[in-house]
Design a protein that fits this description.
The protein has 932 residues and is mainly β. The chain has three domains: 14-122, Carboxypeptidase-like, regulatory domain (Immunoglobulin-like, Sandwich), CATH 2.60.40; 135-233, TonB-dependent receptor, plug domain (Ferric Hydroxamate Uptake Protein, Chain A, domain 1, Beta Complex); 256-341 and 353-379 and 386-931, TonB-dependent receptor, beta-barrel domain (Maltoporin, Chain A, Beta Barrel), CATH 2.40.170.20. 5% of the residues lie in helices and 49% in strands. The strands form ten sheets. It has a 22-stranded antiparallel beta barrel. The protein starts with a helix and ends with a strand. 50% of the residues are buried.
Amino acid sequence: MTLRLQAGLLALLGSCLLSAPARAQVAQAELRGGVLDESGAALPGATITATHVDTGTVRTTVTSPTGTYVMPALPIGVYKISAELTGFGAITKEGIRLAVGDSASLNFTLKVATVAETITVQGESPLVDTKKSELSGRVEQRQVDGLPVNGRDWLGLVSLVPGARGTPGAIQAGSSGSDMAKYQVDGVDVTNQCCGGSNQGYSMENIEEFKVETNRYDAEYGRVNGAVINAVTKSGSNTFRGTGFGFYRRDHFFGPFHDAPTFFTGQIAPFDQKQTGVNSGGPLVRNKAFYFASYEYQKLGATVRPNTGFPQFDVDLPADTTSHFTTARVDFQPNNAHRLFGRTSIYDWKQLNVGVGGTTTQSGGYSRPSSNHDFSLGDTWVISSRAVNEVRAGFSAINNKLDSNCYCVQLSFPSAIIGSPTNSPQWWKEMNIQVNDLFSYFVPAWHGEHSVKMGFQYFRPHFWGAFPDPPFGQFTFTRDPSNFDDPSTYPAPTRYVTQLGDTSYSIMNPTYGGFFQDNWTFNHNLTINLGVRYDIETGTSNTDVPNPIQPGVRPLDRNNVAPRLGFAYDVKADGRSVVRGGVGRYYDKVMLNLTSNERRTILGQFIGVTIVNPSFINALNGLTFQDYKNQKIPATLTVLDNFYQTPYNDQVSIGLAQQLRTGYAMQIDYVHSRGRNEPMTPQINYFEDPVTHLPQSPARYGRPYPAYTNITMTTSTGKSAYDGLQLGLNARTTRVTLGGTYTLSRTYDNHNGNRGGTPTNWFNLDDEYTYASSDQRNRFVVNAVTVLPYSVQASAIFFVGSPRPINIGTNLDPFGLGYFGRWLDATGRTLPRYSERTGCDACFPVTIDGVTTLESVSGWDRKLDLRFAKSVKVRHLTLQGMVDVFNALNIKNANATGYTTNYFSRTYLQPSSSTNLFYQPRQIQFGLRVSY
């Protein structure tokens, strides 16, 4: 993008920030409704007052000529809502809870009064949204505080939402993987721009509640086609409150309180976890300014064990993780027109022996230290009874590193991987700056009602680092040696890969976006959701990088216009039965690690080397970086296709939301999504056999681009599809919070997530299209929080998921292509992609007291987590003791990524232990929370 165009877009953005009113951020809520008299006639000019119970802050508006009102950009929480008009008795409804992302309807009927009077009633928060067609779910504070979450990562609760996919902890929806999700905290995007996931970690004690949009969300969301997570952090109130807490786990506590033996050794694995912290909040100036601050320390002492089939490698190893979470927030309302907030969070952590497990031995792992910081500011400006403008500004920075356990060359055998990973050591940093401005305007009487919103965003990520730094290289073997300790018994390697020169990179990606949304209430029954969005990323096409194999101008991807259309039909206009549906297009972001690889290869002083059938003693034959450069020796190349396009997803849904009775609601929706232009990273530098459509050996037939050996090209040839029937049930009563979801679905793709994937045969992509790694046909989740006799609180999460595909392959290279896939022999036979599923009968050996038995594991994931808590008042303190039991039924589960996937390995399709907390045996945790 030219400097002139960037300057013009920035100027446009600036003018919008200064002049355009904007809709409330999605981190807040909206209240709307109407005021009528006893005859059903509209009452214009009635005053609506919303008082936030905890902070005492007040918002007022007046009804329009049609008797309707809208209050956007309200802070979440419990409200007292009143309606009054001269000559009528006032009505106040108390206990109205507005949750994150809510668009709640609240109507009033006023009676003529001969004397001044006010009627106060207990209000009911609506369970069914009659104005929106998006598919979403919400996790409320009672669930965040009360449910048993192994590891106490609040994102583990995303799995409770209808339409969410994967095991708890995975962030998946539709055909999109977890790296396609979007994470927003307090209205600010904290998504990692390099590789997906969240840039920042937050203490579970710091999260008020969050909403998960799984499918067909409004046009305000851009650069995402997976799940959208909208979280709101806790803020202070007019009451000083504070909490100190501790959660403790050990493999042995005392007596019967100990973990169950692991499924893979028959022994109780060493395990220790401590999570302690404090938080405090209260008023700085009553009814105007508030603070909240928190700190949490976590130390997890876990164990991982490789499963190579060789005793010298298959030993228990520490997989410890240490984390620090710090957050401070201030809210300030100087007057009724403005509300400001500022928040800063710091998240530092370090994990040991990452990557170890399965066929990867201890020397093949690494440690990972990470430091993360974010800062957010916001101002909500109530311009009038119809218009609200909101500005958000955010800054985030991460500093990550991978440090190999062994600074040595990697030896990759079918059954064991020894030595430094090919992506380690490395370091990378990311710094993101963003400014968002959103507008809402209420039009009460123009062919119905219009809730119009528009917004503009400027987002500038900077991603830089170096990997490997330094490189150690990798030898690949097709057979195991007879003695791993004696290199003289090693077979001849079939491939050697390394990097020479400067492996650093840097990329900046100024991004601009805008949207327009009109939620048009056509009549009492029908609301139409009309939206369109446009985003442009100016740094991901690498327009300044000359493509040596595709000369010419590299165009910028400018056509990412995303229309969206939905409807919500309130069948009886009573807010109880809503038929909803729609269609929309959703463009994703371009992962910066894909484009940075090209910059590193072409612009930097860097050469990638792949040697087929190398010498194990001297693979490079004494050649250096300068030799390769000066002599123009063919080397590897990584490029971005000149016509690479931004991935997108088309989504269609139709369904029903139904309030069953007071406090109970259900939803059922059919969703179809189709992903296109998704990234693949094929190897392309070889010829196609015109008869068999197999690749031809470069050693015999040469290469299309003889100046290079392997060429990895990032293309837009990936695709995916999802069909799902998504059901949800929610119950909210005084004593019980209950939620249940069931999903029947199928998911297909021809690649591995949003970072691409190398197809086995570039000339036969149809062979790649099959079940995706995230495919899970049946998925059932129930969660409940209730109060038992003697004021004991009990809660549970029960998860059931059907078998998942396993990414199988081989380490054969029959055509000398310089990479592996699923080849079985030189005739072109391949293993069917993801043709195996989790679960096996008598498939892995367990030795206990010298007796070895073959154990089985179900392909179904099943897990029950329980919590029992009791609170006691001691003067001004509340003491709460908790006991958590994770995997209470001690069901044997195995991680799909922990199976040995090499067809020629001696432990092929055997599961192995995992550090993922979902896949642990029964564990017990004790907790104590002290509050004032």
